[in-house]
From TrEMBL:
Residues 1-23 form the signal peptide. InterPro entries: DUF4344 (IPR025644). It comes from the Bacteria. Keywords: Signal. It comes from Methylobacterium frigidaeris. This is Metallopeptidase. It holds the Pfam family DUF4344.
Amino acid sequence: MNARARLLPLILAACILPWASTAGPSMQDGGHVRVVYEAPRTAAYRGIYREMREHRVLERVGAVIGLVRLPTRLTYRLKECAGELNAWYAPESRSVTVCYELLASVAQAAPRTKSPAGVTRQEAIRGPVFQILLHESSHALFDLLDVPILGREEDAADQIASLILLHLSPADARMVVMGSGYYFATTARDEPVDRGAFADVHGLSWQRFYNLTCMAYGSDERRFRTIVAKDVLPKERAEGCGQEYAQVAFAFRRLIGPHLRVRPGGDERLRRAFRSAFRS
């Protein structure tokens, strides 16, 4: 095992520690959400397995999605994927799968301590991990609730994931924006901008970066004012971000809102419910 592989479990432990609770078994069934932690064959991933399972990362995301009345059980699965860096939702099995390989790549892309822009290593790992999980969860909601989608489904999944994450505590919301933004910007450096990239169902990493920062700024211009002040988000785009956020929030209320277990009572009631579920 090389030095990077030995450090990875420690890195993930530090990142997940704020959500720590009692250890759980490798498989849990909460009725509407089931989580499965498959033990990896590769030794380098066993630390990730132990830490993710012990600190109930899948359960925390499942608790947030569990605020929606799902018509059938949804499974979250962490597994080794034969070298594939991937995460996906499978409608035939109604399951969200995240690969150990992808989590390892997120840790490897993070700065050793802090980036020049001030993104900490913890933010650069925790942010993308939760963004990835909620992005795939959004695909699950679209499928299980028969949500109509105008435009590209991958863009819509990014928007719903961002909306949910921005309803968390200010510290958690900042963590996701800073960490995921760093990850998108980092992957963009090596991303080919060619015909194949433009034909892909996913947006380019720089597009996902600006969409995320615009959603954040639109959700709370005061809290995220440095995004524009430091010219991270162009002022021309920032001018319409409030409207972009409102558009996504309106679609969420109309299309997913009726399925929520949370009683009607405005945005703040939903915000409290998401925060409570995430911290449970």
